[in-house]
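Dear support,

I submitted the protein below through the web form. The confirmation email said the job was done, but the results page showed an empty box. After a refresh the structure appeared. I'm attaching both so you can tell me whether what I see now is the final result or a partial one.
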Amino acid sequence: AKQCAKVLRGEQMEKRGGGIPTGRHKPRHRPSSAEFQAQAEVLRKQHAQKLLQKMRKEEAEQQQKLREVMDSAREQIRQREEQRHQELLEQQQERREMESQAANFDLQQRAAAEQKRLRLVEHAKQVLQQAEEERLRRRLRSR
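What the results page shows now:
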């Protein structure tokens, strides 16, 4: 096996991880573990920032959805209460009308009964008067 004394250039040098530094090509820079750790720390921070932004965005969306649900629930409750209030008002109005009709009917009944009584009294007076006249006629005839 030949020794590789041949000068590597460009991509070949990159593949082999360096080469014979001749001054024409910069030898491949091998980062130290401290540099790797620093780079990894930067990447971790970036990733954490992205995750944090994503979580905040999701949180904001959830809050918005919750707000919408609560608003819609409040609106439904308000509509139900309004409807119930309207129904109560209608019931009160109906009750007043019924009471008014009942009172009117009662007055009409009393008035009719009073008229009937007056007619009966009048009729009774007439009958008594006729009977008295008849009695007087009989007396006058018998004399």
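Response: this is the final, complete result; the empty box was a page-load delay. DSSP finds two helices and no strands in the chain.
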